């Protein structure tokens, strides 16, 4: 069970790296097939290299004297190999290709409450901030609460910072 927990934690790095790259491509192109292909092409070498390094390190445990360490190292090496090659580089992209645009579906109610977080700024930050201001006013009006204005200069703010401050303001108002 402990081996499974460690492998699960290690494999999440690959998954987040692979899927975030695919999501960036999907946001840029709007085409799932292109997003999966480009995301896999951009991350496959890094995932393979990282897995190879971990396999070598874990395989070195087999050279030790302690039977438990040998078993642990062998199990981790095999698990990382299977996870990086079979799961992350074959099964995940194949499944995402088959699912198409359903990969990126999210319920509307959840999409409304989750903050918009981007690694890179949007093309038009000012327009996005104006839209978020309007949504905030509509939510406040529907709830019958008063929204504390957040002092900001839209051209100087990144959407992630705005979203974080907006979340704090909304939490203060609702408490």
Uncertain spans, ≥5 residues at pLDDT below 50?
152-175
Distance between the termini: 41 Å
Radius of gyration: 22 Å
Question: What does the average pLDDT come to?
Answer: 78
Helical content (DSSP H or I, runs of 4+) = over 70%
Shape: elongated
Major sheet description = none
In total, the number of strands is: 0
Concise summary:
This protein is mainly α and 175 residues long. The protein is built from six helices and no strands. It folds into two domains: 103 residues; 67 residues, no CATH class.
Can you tag this structure with a few keywords?
disordered C terminus, 6 helices, 2 domains, single chain, elongated, 175 residues, mainly alpha
Structure explained in plain terms:
The structure is a single chain. By secondary structure, the protein is mostly helical. It folds into two domains: 2-104; 108-174, no CATH class. 75% of the residues lie in helices and 0% in strands. It has six helices and no strands. Helix 1 (2-29) packs antiparallel against helix 2, helix 1 runs parallel beside helix 3 and helix 2 packs antiparallel against helix 3 (67-99). The longest helix has 33 residues, at 67-99. The radius of gyration is 22 Å and the shape is elongated.
């Amino acid at each position: 069970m402990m081996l499974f927990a460690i492998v699960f934690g290690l494999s999440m790095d690959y998954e987040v790296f692979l899927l975030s790259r695919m999501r960036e491509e999907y946001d840029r192109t709007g085409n799932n097939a292109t997003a999966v292909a480009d995301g896999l092409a951009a991350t496959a070498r890094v995932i393979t290299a990282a897995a190879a390094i971990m396999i070598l390190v874990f395989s070195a445990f087999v050279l030790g004297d302690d039977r438990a360490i040998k078993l642990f190292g062998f199990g981790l090496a095999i698990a990382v190999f299977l996870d990086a090659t079979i799961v992350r580089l074959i099964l995940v992209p194949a499944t995402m290709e088959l699912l198409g645009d359903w990969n990126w579906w999210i319920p509307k109610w959840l999409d409304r409450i989750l903050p918009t977080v981007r690694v890179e700024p949007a093309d038009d930050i000012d327009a996005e901030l104006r839209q978020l201001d309007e949504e905030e006013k509509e939510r406040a009006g529907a709830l019958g609460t008063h929204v504390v204005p957040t002092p900001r200069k839209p051209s100087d703010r990144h959407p992630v910072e705005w979203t974080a401050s907006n979340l704090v303001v909304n939490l203060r108002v609702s408490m």
